[in-house]
Amino acid sequence: MSETKIQIRNLHKAFGKKVVLDGIDLDIVKGESLVVIGGSGTGKSVLIKCIQGLLTPDEGSILVDEKEVVGINEQEKEELHSKMGMLFQGGALFDSLSVWENVAFDLLENRSMDKKTAKSEAVRVLRSVGLAPDVADLSPSELSGGMQKRVGLARAIASKPEIIFFDEPTTGLDPIMADVINDLIIESVKGLGATALTITHDMASARKIADKIAMLYHGKIIWQGTVKEMDKTENPYVRQFINGCSQGPIKVEV
Ligand SMILES: Nc1ncnc2c1ncn2[C@@H]1O[C@H](COP(=O)(O)OP(=O)(O)OP(=O)(O)O)[C@@H](O)[C@H]1O
Ligand SMILES: [Mg+2]
User: Fold this and answer.
1) How crowded is residue 226: how many other Cβ atoms within 10 Å of its Cβ?
2) Ligand 2 center to residue 34 CA distance, Å?
3) pLDDT in tens, 102-116
4) Whose CA is nearest to atom 19 of ligand 1?
5) Which residues pair with 212 in a beta bridge?
6) 45 lines ligand 1 (CB under 6 A)
7) What does the pLDDT read at residue 75?
8) What tens digit of pLDDT does each residue of 123-139 get?
9) Which fold has domain 1-83+163-254?
10) Candidates 46, 55, 171, 203: which one to mutate for ligand 1, based on the most atoms within 8 Å of Cβ?
11) Which residues have beta carbons under 5 A from ligand 2 (an ion)?
12) Local structure of residue 141 (DSSP, 8 states)
């Protein structure tokens, strides 16, 4: 039997009159890599923030390891976060800290590891994402976008999380660097045996890293399946999205 790591039921979230999530049902199996696709502004980042307990949904339930996330207190939130790693949309590295301090942030702040051990651990993780030890002492602002993504990835995996979120991991990278990052994501997730939730509109990346794909549209998961099933589906929303057509049932408000 496959074990459910994250179970989402009837999740609703609105900001004022704007309904963003309108009854999401989604299961993420332990050790699986799920990719949620959907257009800009459809609520992909909001979904991740709800699972992390950073946004409170208006209605519904989110179970992580069978424990309810909705309505948890600060201490429970800390426990939840200790299981999670995140690669942020746009990197979100601290420029005031060196590369290794960024990577070791959680080890230093939340696991009170001593500086020397944390640094050697950071250098080890940096190496696992293809960065040489001499990068450790640089500032993130001295790195290229692709290198910053690698540092962001190293930070996401440094504390060996059980669940990793990737928010647009390949945005802004050239196609070859994007593919390098995809490979690193697969390696890191498999290496840790982690459960991964990625949100992206990069279909090449989705195809490569997904065990399963789910499409978010108008606040609901309107389709899910494997990459093979996606290529065969007649669902007009999925077809339009994966083919990148302006014509179809999805209307873009301009
Ligand atoms: N804290 C907030 N307060 C008010 N509105 C918000 C807040 N966070 C998100 N929204 C709104 O929710 C909608 C979904 O935002 P979200 O960031 O989840 O989109 P997304 O699917 O991640 O888009 P993108 O692909 O462009 O990153 C947007 O209309 C956004 O303006
Ligand atoms: Mg987003």
Assistant:
1) 12
2) 16
3) 999 888 887 778 889
4) 41
5) 34
6) yes
7) 93
8) 999 988 888 999 999 99
9) Rossmann fold (3.40.50)
10) 46
11) 45
12) G
User: Is ligand 1 within 6 A of the CB of residue 253?
Assistant: no
Nearest CA to ligand 1 atom 25: 40
Q: Is the CB of 40 under 6 A from ligand 1?
A: yes
Predicted confidence (pLDDT) per residue in 12-67, tens digit: 999 999 999 999 999 999 999 999 998 888 899 999 999 999 999 999 999 999 99
Whole-angstrom Cα distance, residue 120 to residue 118? 6
Buried b (16+ CB within 10 A) or exposed e, 52-84: bbebebeebebbbeeeebeebeeeeeeebbebb
Q: What is the pLDDT of residue 1?
A: 63
Closest Cα to residue 45, out of 177, 159, 194, 169? 169
Q: Is 41 in the pocket of ligand 1 (CB under 6 A)?
A: yes
Helix runs in the chain, H state only: 44-51, 74-82, 99-103, 105-109, 115-128, 145-157, 175-192, 203-209, 227-232, 236-243
Instruction: Say which residues have a Cβ less than 8 Å from residue 24's Cβ, sequence separation at least 6.
Output: 8, 10, 11, 12, 47, 60, 216, 219, 220, 221
